[in-house]
Automatic annotation (TrEMBL):
InterPro entries: Phage_holin_3_6. Residues 12-21 have a biased composition (Polar residues). It comes from Promicromonospora vindobonensis. The chain crosses the membrane at residues 93-116, 122-142. It holds the Pfam family Phage_holin_3_6. Residues 160-176 have a biased composition (Basic and acidic residues). Keywords: Membrane, Transmembrane, Transmembrane helix. Residues 1-49, 157-176 are annotated as: Disordered. This is Phage holin family protein.
Length: 176
């Protein structure tokens, strides 16, 4: 005869209560292992109270740590993708500005060449304009080389990554 009761629903009847002696009474009218009615059987209090073994706790902590690291990596990927998208747009705009600036410099150089050609002739005015641009290029190259030499990489990131193993072992004081 089928029952209307949901077999998957949690009920307080499914949770046995302990007697004062760490034993659980069988259901009313139930039969124990020896066939006696109303018998009690011993219960592991630690399992009933939610205590877990060290291995179970370690497994839970390692799963939680793994989940946390996975979520942090996903967050970093999402942030990096968003930053890269914005940086790409910005770089494209800088590229367009560079092309426009190049056109401005080209036409200003042609205008200077044309203006100087009245004073010293067409050939010599082109040499003067080219010499001005050579000086500008040399100054920019020297400044750029000095800037590249001063790049240190990522010292703070490298330092913090070196501290992770000690922090995981619980030896944060070694990181000071």
């Amino acid at each position: 005869m089928p029952s209307d009761r949901d077999p998957f629903a949690a009920s307080s009847a499914a949770q046995p209560t302990t007697t004062g002696r760490g034993q659980v009474p069988l259901e009313a009218g139930g039969v124990g292992a020896t066939g006696g009615v109303g018998e009690t059987r011993p219960v592991d209090r630690h399992a009933r109270e939610g205590d877990q073994s060290i291995g179970e706790l370690f497994g839970e902590v390692s799963r939680d740590l793994s989940t946390l690291i996975r979520q942090e990596v996903e967050l970093a990927k999402a942030e990096a993708a968003q930053s890269a998208k914005r940086a790409g747009k910005g770089a494209g705009m800088f590229g367009g500005a560079g092309v426009a600036g190049h056109m401005v410099l080209l036409f200003l150089s042609l205008a200077l060449w044309w203006a100087l050609s009245y004073l010293m002739g067409g050939g010599w005015s082109a040499v003067v304009v080219a010499a001005v641009w050579a000086v500008i290029a040399a100054v920019l190259a020297a400044r750029g080389r000095a800037e590249i030499k001063s790049v240190e990489g990522m010292p703070q990131t490298a330092d913090s990554v070196k501290k992770i193993p000690d922090a995981l072992r619980g030896h944060e004081e070694k990181n000071s």
